[in-house]
Amino acid sequence: MPVLVASDLDRTLIYSSAALALTMPDARAPRLLCVEVHESRPLSYLTETAAQLLSDLGDTAVFVPTTTRTRKQYQRINLPGPQPAYAICANGGHLLVDGVTDQDWHASVQARLADECAPLEEIREHLARSADPVWVRKHRIAEDLFAYLVVERELLPEDWVKELAVWAENRGWTVSLQGRKIYAVPKPLTKSAAVREVARRTGAELTLAAGDSLLDADLLLAADRGWRPGHGELADAGWNAPQISALPERGVLAGERILREFLRATRTAAS
């Protein structure tokens, strides 16, 4: 039976230059491979060692990129290894099969959101009213499913984020602060639901997962085994669970360690 490996991408497997956390002397820094270009500029990286590990993983498991990115943002990424047959975008709102949205899945997600939480327009209007232009750089709607802000972190009032989280909670939404982005996401919009669907379709009996943010908690809890890096929202909160391994590595070396763990667990399951 195949092993399913569902992993978050940003700040879990791939890293912007600001998130690399290269604390070693320059001469000892790992060689990096660029896996994303945006507006003709390199944007995201993993180590060359991680690239080989990911290629090996793609040959031995069902690897499923599992991201909050929109489909357009995801399609900018050029990961090493076999092209994934499945990918999960928009935090579970879109299930891609050979790069194409599964419309039946998307329709079922939209129906659930309409039934279980406040409408996106209410959230958008609240963000427009309450977010201060002094520290907000962009207002964005992603795939007509959720909203996010791009902010100046050093100017962002911590109390505002907490107040937003309480307000959103009462309307069936979750707030997550990741780098320079504040996400407001409907609670029923989950990575775990989409991963369970892929497991059903592939017949996988073992699911492995990794992630760093609050939006990855449900994914990790739904997996048989999971890993989180030493940075990110989950690490900052000291979040853990019995089947989750909290790794000490931070930055791009955490991505390399996660891929080693995925590959080791996949090979153990196959032996």
In short:
With 271 residues, the chain is an alpha/beta fold.
SSE layout and pairing:
Blueprint: E1 3-7, E2 32-38, E3 41-47, H1 48-60, E4 62-65, H2 71-74, E5 86-89, E6 94-97, E7 100-101, H3 103-116, H4 120-130, E8 136-142, E9 146-151, H5 158-169, E10 173-178, E11 181-186, H6 191-202, E12 206-210, H7 217-222, E13 225-228, H8 233-236, E14 244-246, H9 252-270
Parallel strand pairs: 1-4, 1-12, 12-13, 13-14
Antiparallel strand pairs: 2-3, 5-6, 6-7, 8-9, 9-11, 10-11
Helix pairs in contact: 1-9
Describe the structure.
35% of the residues lie in helices and 26% in strands. It has helices at residues 48-60, 71-74, 103-116, 120-130, 158-169, 191-202, 217-222, 233-236, 252-270; strands spanning 3-7, 32-38, 41-47, 62-65, 86-89, 94-97, 100-101, 136-142, 146-151, 173-178, 181-186, 206-210, 225-228, 244-246. It has a 5-stranded parallel sheet, sandwiched between helices. It has a 4-stranded antiparallel sheet with strand order 8-9-11-10. A 3-stranded antiparallel sheet has the order 5-6-7, with helices on one face. α1 (48-60) packs parallel to α9 (252-270). It is globular. It starts with a strand and ends with a helix. 42% of the residues are buried.
Notable traits:
271 residues; alpha/beta; 35% helix; four-stranded antiparallel beta sheet; 9 helices; five-stranded parallel beta sheet; 26% strand; globular; 14 strands
Report low-confidence residues grouped into runs of 5 or more.
none
| Radius of gyration based on Cα positions | 18 Å
Q: Note the beta-strand portion.
A: 25-35%
Q: Span from first to last CA?
A: 12 Å
* Count, helices: 9
Helix residue percentage: 25-40%
